[in-house]
Amino acid sequence: MPLPSLPDLTLEGFRRKLANVDALPQLCVLGVLSGLLTGAVMVGFRLLLDLGALTFMPDGDPENFEGLSPLLRSSLPLLAVLIIGIFLWRQPAAARKMGVGHVIERLSYHQGRFPLRNWINQWWVGVVSVIGGLSAGREGPAIHLGAAAASGIGQRLRLPHNSLRVLVACGTAAGISASFNTPIAGVIFAMEVVMLEYTIVGFMPVILASTMGALVAMLVYGSEPAFQVPSVSMGSLMNLPWIVVTALFVGLLAGLFIHVAKSTTIRELPVWLRLMLVAVATAGVAWWYPEVQGIGYDSLDASLTGDLAVDILFALVVGKLLLTGLTVASGIPIGIIGPVLVVGAAAGALAGLVGAQLWPQLAADPGFYAMLGMAAMMGAVLQAPLAALMALLELTHNPNIILPGMLAVVVSGLTARQLCRCDGFFVSVTRQGLHPLQQPLMQALSRVSVPAVMERSLVRTQRMVTREQARALLDAKPVWILIMRSTDDKPTLALKAADLARALMDEQLAEEVETSSQLIDLLEVPGQRLEMAPIHLQATLSEAFERLNDQAVDALFVEHGHRPKQKRISGIITRGAIERYYSLK
Fold this sequence. Notes:
There is one protein chain. Strands 1-3-4-6-7-8 form a 6-stranded mixed beta sheet. The protein is α/β, with parallel strands linked by helices. Helix 2 (24-54) crosses helix 6, helix 2 (24-54) runs parallel beside helix 9 (200-221) and helix 20 crosses helix 24 (541-551). It is elongated, with a radius of gyration of 29 Å. Strand 7 (555-560) and strand 8 (568-574) form a beta hairpin. The chain contains 25 helices and 8 strands. The two termini are 35 Å apart.
């Protein structure tokens, strides 16, 4: 009785398992590792912000712009834009791409591989933009830093590209989780905004990564939520119509923000003029209302507790919204999630104050509307209703707010999408047209790498062979025979081994070949020959499918190895094999 085979515990065996669609245990291990790494990166980024604040901010608080003199706080945006303009615009345009949009682009068009230069730039640009008093958040930088660090694990270990996609989602979830102490919202954000899909294989490692990221942040900052949320409730059902009105208002604000951020008029201006507009506009508003500077979490807290004056709420809704959109449209890579939450909370608080004037006996607390406005704005800008609802639930720890929250998020999302004609901010900003991750075929093919489908049974030979050499080739029982070029020893055509075997058995061929020393031209053997192009072993089936179309061939030979002289052929993958895989799934 044969003994059961032992599992392959080598790195090569780990890679082979990851190439398949059912590599859940291996992906969960990667989820834990990426969550721990991203949590550490997020803590490092927050400590870097704190260190920068210690140099000149009152009490070392990176949010305390109100404690600075008007002249100093108005000078900070001028200095920040100058630094970013000098040191960032000297670099190529590709190196200036950062944040969540960059993460989605690398996932969509580069299989989750991140350039090191962008990652390094994200550290200092994220700190300068926040500490320098621009209307910017820390979540965008945190997601980029975490996703790239998690992907770096896979790149360093040369893992298949389908696992890099999961690692990017793990880094994204852990970054959100460590920022807000909201692990569930981190998971939903990663799947709904970045991955644009929901699968069991994707969910489990992302859940583990989000949990690990939150635990690392808790070890340093404690388990308190990001905001101090008062205990409020809707009270009377008569608030429901006003919730709908509030959500309509927030949805229109979300549409305005996206249109400003995508403004082609601003983008077509000279670089120096764009940067000057951002610096001067931010400095001018900050002179009177410093609450618009930085992330604004202190102002968000005050909105939730009702401690902000009406004029400050107006400044946050109008000033912070337009300043954030202007900064994005000018090409300065900032995080927008934090400012969007602040604007939404301020808009909700304003709506709550108006409701209290109209129905003083029935209206809910303005803090209640501020919470709904925060979730509605996030859901409408990102077109991520589930992520917004989960963030609302985890931040408030109040399940009673979910019902009005669902209504607010749906109404604001529909308003932004239908009335303002806005798609999700990051998808629409990344590229125009249908996003690749929204195509069902490409989604399915991206979950599996080439080794899971390729045919490994093959032999290589030159075009001309003797009868004995042909029989020796068939003795190995291959499925494919790769016909090599004599110039560079690269295969150009693939012939079915069965076609050669049939030809050798053909009586006509036997009569034509009188001796075994006479040569057989494999290009003349009756049968179908497939033209081929190379592809790397780490590639996904979506990459293989695109390469087949780009090269106008019907098969790819799979190369293994990174050094040109050490590459070897591991298998062959045909268009038919990819189509059979997809049809079976």
